[in-house]
Each structure stands twice: as C-alpha cells, then as structure tokens.
Specification:
α2 crosses α6 and α6 packs antiparallel against α11. This protein is mainly alpha-helical. It is built from eleven helices and no strands. It has one domain.
Length: 259
C-alpha cells in the first residue's frame, strides 16, 4: 500500500470520526449498551460458574471478553449502513471525481470501526475491573483481547461494506444483520462455556469467527496463556480479515463501474 493511500485513508477516517463525535447521543448509546450487557448478564448468570467448565470462579471474569467481542460484532455489522448513506447522499460519487485513493474510500470505514472498537473495548475492560473482574493475563492478555476484537470487527465491517455495495437497500442490511447477530453470538462461548453446550453447537462454534476471537482473547488472559490457541485463532481471524477487505474493495470497483 502506497504512502498516498495511507494518507488518504487516514484523512477519510478522520472525516468519519468527526461525524461520530458530532452525535453525542450515538456515543452515549454505544457505551451504555455494553454496560447493560455486562452487569445485566453478569448478575443474571453469576451462579452458572458453579456448573464448572468456565475456568474461573467468577462469571464476570468470563463475561468481560464475551461483551468485548459481542460489542465489536454488533457495532461493525452496521458499517454498511454508513456506506449506503454515503451513496444515497451522493457523497461517495462526488469523491469518485477527486484524486482520493479508491481503497481509502472503503478502508476508512473499517479503520474507523477499528478505532471505535478499541476505545469501546477499553471502556468495557475498565468497567469490568470496577465491577470486580480480574485479569490474570495482565496487560498482554488484555491487548490480545482488544486486537482480536478489532480483527473480528474488521471482518464483519468489511463484509457489511460489501453487502451495502451489493444490495443498496437499508431493509436488506437490517434483515441480514438481525438474522445473523444472535446466532453468531450464541453459537459461541460468549456467555456459556463450550463444555456445557450440546455437541452440535460445539462443532459449529469451532468454525465461528466470533468464537475464534473469544478463544484467542481468553487464552491470552489466562494465568497460564495458551499461545498456540492465540496464534491459531488470531491467525485465522487475520486471514479472514484480509479476505473481507479484499472483497469489500472488489465490490467497490464494481459499484464504481456502474455509476
């Protein structure tokens, strides 16, 4: 990637971040929602750890990575709505007549999602700490968790952008996201230990990118980190993220030819 493309991507990312900062209500909602998940589910299922298989005696310890990853998933899946809004306003078409890098036009949305995911993850981790959660893996484990969340957000943010380019209808994006969000979440170890799942759910979780992020994060956050699991799941997420960004760029080129 050239220096010009990187500069253009950062400029377009700043533009999107500025737009978000001008919507304080949106910022409050994105921070309040994870708080509700963290403490509502934390209180509701706090005794489930007595069944065993969670690797901890505190459900909040187990839940923090789940909320971090779920927040990354739920926020990134709506990236395509922003792309669709740019198309409807004609903003995207106006950028097409400028020298700005075409890759920057698509990737800026993904970078913005990554920055937002990182900040949101840090807030969730700090709130979990205030609530009594412990992180045996220390700063390194927490960093791996945040990076895994960012990679997951990149995967679904890029796929969402590609979807926005292909369908170009809000209703379709809303319907697809609503259909996928809960199955992807509950067919993973976000809220329940894998050992307590039915066998068919465990097999699906093995191929679920959401669960890859959770396994990588929790493995790194353990007192005795399993770096093999971190590298295998993290590597799979990285490969999938690269593929998703490539697909997003390809659909943008197809859109460009159609206008």
């Amino acid at each position: 990637m050239s220096t010009a493309t990187l500069n253009h991507t950062w400029y377009m990312t700043q533009r999107q971040l500025t737009a978000i900062l001008r919507q304080p209500a949106f910022l409050v909602i994105t921070l309040v929602q994870p708080v509700i998940w963290l403490f509502l589910f934390g209180s509701l299922f706090r005794r489930v750890v007595e069944l065993g298989g969670f690797g901890t005696t505190s459900y909040l310890d187990y839940l923090v990575p789940g909320v971090v990853v779920m927040s990354a998933l739920s926020s990134s899946m709506w990236a395509g709505m922003g792309t669709l809004e740019e198309i409807e306003r004609g903003t995207l078409n106006r950028f097409l007549v400028t020298p700005v890098s075409r890759a920057a036009l698509m990737n800026a949305n993904v970078v913005q999602q990554g920055i937002s995911t990182a900040l949101q993850s840090v807030v969730i981790v700090l709130l979990g700490k205030l609530g009594g959660a412990t992180y045996p893996g220390g700063a390194t484990g927490l960093l791996v968790l945040v990076v895994a969340a960012i990679l997951l957000g990149t995967v679904f943010g890029a796929f969402s952008n590609a979807l926005g380019m292909l369908v170009r209808q809000r209703e379709s994006i809303i319907g697809i996201n609503t259909f996928l969000l809960l199955p992807l979440t509950f067919l993973s170890s976000a809220f329940m230990a894998v050992t307590l799942m039915p066998s068919w759910m465990r097999h699906i979780a093995d191929f679920n990118p959401v669960n890859w992020a959770l396994v990588a994060g929790r493995s790194a956050m353990a007192a005795d980190p399993d770096w093999g699991s971190v590298l295998s799941r993290g590597g799979a997420l990285l490969v999938l993220a690269v593929a998703a960004v490539w697909l997003s760029t390809r659909t943008f080129h197809a859109y460009q030819k159609s206008v």
